[in-house]
Amino acid sequence: MSKTYKICLLPGDGIGPEIVAEAVKVLEKLAPKYDVEFDFTEALIGGCAIDEAGEPLPQATLDVANASDAVLLGAVGGPKWDTTDSTKPRPEQGLLAIRKELGLYTNLRPVQIFSALSQASTLKSEIVEGVDIAIVRELTGGLYFGERHRYYDEEGAGANGGKGQRAVDTLEYREYEVERIARQAFEAAKTRRGRVTSVDKANVLDTSRMWREVVHRVHDEEYPEIELIDMLVDNTAMQLVNNPRQFDVLVTENMFGDILSDEAAQITGSLGMLASASIGDGVSLFEPSHGSAPDIAGRGIANPLAQILSAGMMLQYAFGMTEAAADITRAITEVLDEGWRTGDIKDPETPEDKIVGTAAMGDLVVAHL
Ligand code: IPM
Ligand code: MG
To answer: Which of 174, 199, 225, 244 is the 20 to 30 Å CA partner of 270?
Structure first.
């Protein structure tokens, strides 16, 4: 009897449905080879959930996710739901809420270069060649989950100026939250090149000072053999484009990780290449690091590779199907080596590159499996 894995599909908004469809094709192609079955159940999240159910993460969706072995998500958001009115629902709240509800505190974002794409990066190929970074982003704490409010200040703040709106976001971390993400980073480093760069803003923020203390304590007590480097976030942003090869594991809090991972993605040539795994103590969730790209949604030109690579991470981390995950990476490498490109990874200086759309790119990967 083959094993069945239940997968909750959350295509979401924008290009989400288009790229999730390609990942499903790839999974279905792999299933017989590994004698497994994938049982997909689709549910709503983000803007489409606001439209149909009035909220970005309906309870029904959470129920499907909780009853699954893993969640594969596309992307959420779009101009239709953009608002600066804090009282209106936003698609992104659905994503933040499912991360919180499933306890997904670790977000792994591997930044890897496919050598065929080293020309596609906006950085010089000698800078990006050989880059291999594991970004470990804390995902359920910090500013994105702190108390926030906005109000009209009738009195005015004395010397700081008169009446007007005031907005407050709170950045808070608890010791155990830092401890557990630090452990994830050190564990990842053990299986890699043994170096962790911990990113903070300890020259200004108290949360960062505590972060630094706790990371060092976990290091000294449990992982003394790992090399640990502290780096300020502004310097890290610069070092990532100056000399990205110096990084092995990069661990940081939620917002810094959000920003630095977009920056790091560009090293790979495109945000369309960056997969991610969000892991906690229960069901895990896998999604590309990019957004819903509403500007190209519905045109069949989006790059499905980050979504397909995220499905690969799901096979590896959620189902322990390491070989099947390696098949996906190998197939993508071959497709890229043959010169097939979606628009975002096309190198203007390489006229031999062959441009294909979303579905054709998915078919090529399937054909190479
Ligand atoms: C990401 C996205 C999300 C985040 C948004 C859509 C809430 O930018 O996954 O990086 O900030 O985490
Ligand atoms: Mg982001």
So the answer is: 199
Ligand 1, residues at Cβ distance < 6 Å:
77, 92, 95-96, 258, 289, 291
192 burial via Cβ count (<10 Å: 0-12, 13-18, 19+): middle
Helices 305-317 and 16-33, interaxial angle, to 10°?
A: 50
Are the C-beta atoms of residues 79 and 124 closer than 8 Å to each other?
no
Task: Note whether 243 and 126 are within 8 A (CB).
Answer: no
The helices-and-strands tally (H runs, E runs) of the chain is 12, 14
Q: How far apart are CA 245 and CA 111, in angstroms?
A: 11
Residue-wise pLDDT for 213-241, tens only, equals 999 999 999 999 999 999 999 999 999 99
Instruction: Tell me the one-letter amino acid at 170.
Output: T
Instruction: Determine which residue's CA is closest to atom 10 belonging to ligand 1.
Output: 258
d(CA 329, CA 327): 6
Predicted local distance difference test score (pLDDT) of residue 115: 87
- Which whole-number Å values give the CA distances from 17 to 130, 307, 359, in the listed order? 32, 11, 12
How far, in Å, from the CA of 166 to the mean position of ligand 1? 24
Q: 365, 334 in Cβ contact below 8 A? A: no
Rounded to 5 degrees, φ, ψ at 8 are -90, 120
How far apart are alpha carbons 140 and 148 in whole angstroms? Answer: 15
- The first and second tokens of residue 19, run together, are 């790229």
Residue 258 known to be catalytic: yes
In this structure, is the dihedral angle defined by the CA atoms of residues 153, 154, 159 and 165, taken in order, positive or negative?
positive
Q: Are residues 8 and 43 in contact, defined by beta-carbon separation less than 8 angstroms?
A: yes
pLDDT surpasses 70 at 243: yes
Q: At residue 288, what is the residue type?
A: P
What's the pLDDT score for residue 159? 55
Catalytic residue among 5, 105, 144, 317: 144
